[in-house]
Amino acid sequence: MPRSMTGFGTAEGSVSGGRLQIELRSVNHRHFNLQLKVPAELMPLEAEVRERLRARIARGHVTVTARWTEAPVRAGALRLNLVRARELVDAVRQLQRALDLPGDLDIGWLVRQPDVLGAEPVAEQPLDAVEPLGILERAADALQAMRDTEGVALVRELSNHLAAIEVELGWVEGRAPDRLVAERDRLRNAVATLLDGGRLDESRLAQEIALLAERLDIAEEIARLKTHLTATRAALAQQNAVGRQLGFLGQEMLREINTIGSKANDLSITQAVIRMKGELEKFREQVENLE
């Protein structure tokens, strides 16, 4: 079943001791188009993200948004500066003696002083690609599930528009022979009126009627339109991306319907053509949403 190009998927998981959330959104686009909105440390994965999503999505504008819900742990080894600690202790005791101040040194106060206790700086390490790419795959699964669901609804709606066109076309096909008979009788009466009782040249009239029938014949257009309708239903039953194919078939169906309308010379057929064009326009609008 064809997919919709519109969808949303999200997933979250552990990465380097933190929590990473990835959201995927897709909307209509003529081609596959990717936009990344991710932390700087994930940018080296852009090429891999692009290839993985391209393998799953044929068409659509896809936005990948990633954010840390919990920042990864990046603390280095604990560093104790004994030289600085001794300097502080000596300075405080010297101050006590000079000013004759009571009290004892507080270890809590000492370790809070700058440069006494801290962490060694940590060099920036590239993230392991396995964890974030796994989250991406789960988000892509959710996105595709939504696109599948939307695709089922779209196919159902498109099929309804095709059914409405087929009903009108069946009526036009049944009406076409009666229209030719009516045109023949109208031409015969018009000629008889002009002759005003004179002799009617049946062979000449037969030639004119034959020429008129050829100009008004819509059997080929009806047959081609039926073929396009059959091909469209077959495309809707496929599992791959058929949006472009359906767009082409929509153009061809419009061509045949317009030709039927131009050759109709019959009010009821013209009205049926207008209804077919209305259903086809709705069909073509919805096809723009299919992958």
Describe the secondary structure blueprint for this structure.
Elements: E1 7-15, E2 18-27, E3 32-37, H1 46-56, E4 60-70, E5 78-80, H2 82-99, H3 107-111, E6 117-119, H4 130-195, H5 202-216, H6 219-236, H7 243-263, H8 267-287
Parallel strand pairs: 3-4
Antiparallel strand pairs: 1-2, 2-4, 5-6
Give me the CATH architecture of the largest domain, please.
Answer: Up-down Bundle
User: Roughly what is the average pLDDT, rounded to an integer?
Assistant: 87
- Summarize the helix and strand pattern as letters: EEEHEEHHEHHHHH
Look up the CATH topology of the largest domain.
Answer: Four Helix Bundle (Hemerythrin (Met), subunit A)
Distance from N terminus to C terminus (CA atoms, Å) equals 11 Å
Strand order of the largest sheet: 1-2-4-3
Query: What is the percentage of strand-forming residues?
Result: 5-15%
Number of strands: 6
* Helix coverage percent: 55-70%
Tell me the domain tally.
3
Radius of gyration from the alpha-carbon trace, in angstroms: 39 Å
**Oligomeric status:** single chain
Summing up helix and strand content along with how strands pair, one would put the structural category as alpha+beta
Count of DSSP-assigned helices: 8
The global form is rod-shaped
Ranges where pLDDT stays below 50 over 5 or more residues in a row are none
CATH C-level class of the largest domain is Mainly Alpha
Summarize the main sheet.
4 strands, mixed
Give an account of the 3D structure.
There is one protein chain. By secondary structure, the chain is of the alpha+beta class. It folds into 3 domains: 7-73 and 127-147, Ribosomal Protein S5, domain 2, CATH 3.30.230; 78-119, no CATH class; 150-287, Four Helix Bundle (Hemerythrin (Met), subunit A), CATH 1.20.120. It has 8 helices and 6 strands. The strands form 2 sheets. The protein has a 4-stranded mixed β-sheet with strand order 1-2-4-3. Strands 5-6 form a two-stranded antiparallel ribbon. A hairpin with a 2-residue loop joins strand 1 and strand 2 (18-27). Helix 1 crosses helix 4 (130-195), helix 4 runs antiparallel to helix 6 (219-236) and helix 6 packs antiparallel against helix 7.
